Amino acid sequence: MTRRLWTRWALRDLRARWVQVTTTALILAIGIAAFWGVGGLREWRERSTDLSLAEMRAHDLRVDLAEGRFVREGGLRAVASRAPAGTVAAAEERLVAPGQVDASRPGHAVV
Fold it and tell me: What distance in Å separates the CA atoms of residue 105 and residue 111, rounded to the nearest whole number?
């Protein structure tokens, strides 16, 4: 009796609010499809990056230091030399720092 009562009540409610039920179902369908669509790209992106790096034989390792800290020139090579043989083929140090570039020309200032 209770199940029948709940079923009749739910169907009556659905008939009275069919626009809201349909709209909610549509919004859920779009959200779920977008989630699965974007989520499916992760595996492809990771595989593509791995294959590209393997093909170029290049892998990047970026190290950020706390503000105000520094490492002497050659510090990366010293750490790389302690790695197991054959794991580091080449190492290159680069300084990446924020700054402004003056690209001005006569009569046109650009910073």
Answer: 11
